[in-house]
Write a structure and sequence with these properties.
Blueprint: E1 19-27, H1 34-42, H2 46-52, E2 56-64, H3 70-84, E3 91-98, H4 103-114, E4 121-126, E5 130-131, H5 136-146, E6 152-159, H6 169-181, E7 192-196, H7 197-200, H8 213-222, E8 235-245, H9 251-275, H10 280-284, H11 286-296, H12 300-311, H13 325-331, H14 335-338, H15 342-364
Parallel strand pairs: 1-2, 1-4, 2-3, 6-8
Antiparallel strand pairs: 4-7, 5-8, 6-7
Helix pairs in contact: 1-3, 6-15, 8-9, 9-12, 9-15
């Protein structure tokens, strides 16, 4: 921990040092979890690497609609780091206190308003994860620098129960589900991802896209903004780069999260189907197009969702592939592991059906704003690993 005194002068790097990396932290009432998260973030080696190159990375806490002490706690940590952190020459730290709650509004304002104009990469991350490697961000950014074709890259999330000596049956199912998710090609992990700036600034989140925004971004990147066949190689998860997070284990939390995911999957399906009907020029300028649609009618997407749900009489047809995606993931496993992961697939399939039924009923009521907040702490249960 950095030891600070209130009367120490604030030491900031020169303003003419270029910012080449912008990191936005999504924070909604995270006064507890954000403390260990920021400790692990500020220990990332990328800041010292940038300082050595005469560059900076900015970290902006996007406190949206917070009613707790998230802003105060974060400002105190940032002020102390700006005075005393060994790599402070490579970082610029600030809080943006956004009165209006909502992840989408915070995302849009960060990408299009708050992030440095000349930054090369734009990263988004959650406030309740913890880095367990000091070189995670460096590895993600380095991967993008080495491959200019990449539009986006993520690290590989690790549940903080991994490696537990005697996991419960819920924990075993949860870990097996993570293994199955790892078979997805070209995955963009929503807890932490990095985008090329020109791509990020041609994206915009309509207010009714809830959850699965990373799926929407992946689809846009891998199809050149819906103008080309899908190419999953344009996004990548860096296997060696990791962070810890706390999984949902309580049945209620699992169902709520899956319900949110089903709503998100259906919404992304609807918006993509609509975008494909627009002229190619509108798709090429996607952010401007989505802004224009929202300015013309703030409920445009909600109306499309309502029409889709009205046409879709069977809840299991809420979006294509709903019944089969878990089984396809199982089929991608090595033959020897398919049997061991079959129980998790069956359990996940049952949860998907229940959550999908709840999501369809929810959407039929004309409501799309669903973002439950589970009582979770930060995932700081393992030591930070040095770079190998």
């Amino acid at each position: 921990m950095l030891n600070a005194t209130a009367d120490q002068p604030l030491c900031r790097p020169p303003v003419d040092v270029p910012i080449v990396l912008s990191i936005g932290i999504m924070a909604w009432n995270e006064e507890v979890s954000i403390v260990p998260m920021l400790a692990s973030l500020l220990d990332q080696s990328i800041f010292a690497n940038l300082a050595a190159r005469g560059q900076r990375g900015e970290v902006i806490c996007l406190a949206n609609g917070c009613t707790d002490r998230t802003v105060v706690v974060t400002e105190e940590i940032f002020a102390r780091a700006s005075r005393e952190h060994p790599a402070r020459a490579g970082m610029a730290l600030r809080v943006e206190n956004i009165a209006k709650p909502g992840r989408n509004n915070a995302w849009n304002r960060f990408v299009h308003e708050f992030s440095a104009p000349g930054t090369h990469r734009i990263c988004l991350m959650d406030a309740d994860i913890v880095f367990n490697r000091v070189d995670t961000l460096h590895l993600v950014v380095q991967t993008m620098e080495r491959n200019p074709r990449l539009g986006g890259a993520s690290d590989s999330p690790v549940k903080n129960i991994a490696g537990k000596a005697a996991p419960s049956w819920r924990e075993r199912v949860s870990l097996a589900t993570s293994d199955l998710t790892g078979t997805i090609e070209g995955r963009l992990n929503g807890m932490l991802y990095c985008l090329r700036t020109d791509i990020a600034r041609n994206l915009y989140l309509p207010r009714d896209v809830l959850a699965n925004d990373d799926g929407f971004f992946k689809a846009a990147i891998c199809t050149d903004f819906f103008r080309a066949p899908l190419d999953p190689s344009k996004v990548v998860s860096v296997r060696e780069a990791t962070h810890l997070y706390e999984p949902y284990l309580a049945v209620r939390d699992v169902l709520n999260n899956q319900k949110r995911q089903m709503i998100g999957q259906a919404t992304v399906h609807v918006i993509i189907e609509y975008l494909l009907t627009l002229p190619e020029g509108d798709r090429a300028q996607l952010a401007a197009t989505l802004r224009r649609l929202e300015a013309r009618d703030p409920d445009w997407l909600k109306k499309l969702i309502a029409a889709h749900v009205a046409r879709t009489r069977r809840f299991w047809r809420l979006f294509p592939g709903l019944l089969g995606f878990r089984w396809r993931r199982l089929a991608q496993m090595p033959p020897g592991r398919r049997l061991t992961h079959l129980p998790a697939t069956i359990a996940g399939f049952a949860v998907t059906l229940i959550a999908c039924f709840q999501a369809a009923r929810f959407l039929r009521r004309g409501v799309s704003n669903y973002w439950p907040k589970a009582a979770r702490q930060a995932a700081a249960t393992a030591p930070v690993l040095s770079a190998k």
